[in-house]
Specification:
By secondary structure, the protein is mainly beta. It contains two helices and nine strands, in the order αββββββαβββ.
């Protein structure tokens, strides 16, 4: 909850600051990549009934690619795609549940310059989380229940983020972001911390 409130507050501040300074556009495009540590909260249909454990890995790394444009000193937009490591859970050495996850997003970013080459960042946007489970026994037979099939959907969810970036030179920079995103019924929400590198044209 603290992350969500902090993200919403800072996102609003930096986005409103951009509006206050006007929208004189001088777009600068960038591409980049980001390594993330993700914390997942799964839905009730993906819990092992015998011991109450989550069958979707709670901590899951991912790699993301991003393309964006800083429209002026204070405002930007970004699209990206994240590839999460496949989650795997085995029931009594007999059946194995695998969950493949991908996340596409579009964000509006607000920048607040605080020092030479240093900006605070707030973001708000939408993420499209896709979860694709497979659940098979040793013979390869499909074991997914109707409820699990129903709950493993692609769904759009609100994204909020806060972070900071540092420009190493006129083109190359690094940034750190913490985000919260609403998910679907299989993964109810995810929190992430990401370290990225970007190149601005």
């Amino acid at each position: 909850m603290k992350i969500k409130l902090s993200a919403l507050a800072l996102s609003g501040i930096v986005l409103l600051s951009g509006s206050a300074f006007g929208m004189d556009l001088d777009p600068k495009f960038y591409v980049g990549a980001e390594a993330q540590a993700n914390q997942l909260k799964n839905g009730k249909e993906f819990v092992d009934a015998t011991n109450g454990k989550s069958t979707i890995r709670k901590n899951n790394p991912s790699l993301g690619l991003m393309l964006g444009s800083r429209l002026n000193e204070y405002v930007g937009v970004e699209v990206g795609y994240n590839f999460m490591k496949e989650s795997k859970y085995t029931f009594n050495n007999a059946s194995t549940l695998k969950m493949k996850m991908r996340n596409a997003y579009v964000d509006a970013l607000g920048y607040l310059p605080v020092a030479n080459n240093v900006d605070l960042i707030g973001s708000i946007g939408a993420g499209r989380l896709t979860t694709k489970p497979t659940f098979k026994n040793q013979a390869g037979a499909d074991q997914l229940t109707d409820a699990q099939r129903k709950d493993s959907k692609t769904k759009m969810g609100l994204r909020l983020g806060v972070g900071a970036q540092y420009k190493l030179d006129d083109n190359l920079g690094v940034r750190f972001m913490v985000r919260h995103q609403k998910g679907n019924k299989a993964v109810k929400n995810l929190k992430s911390a990401g370290l990225g590198l970007f190149y601005q044209f």
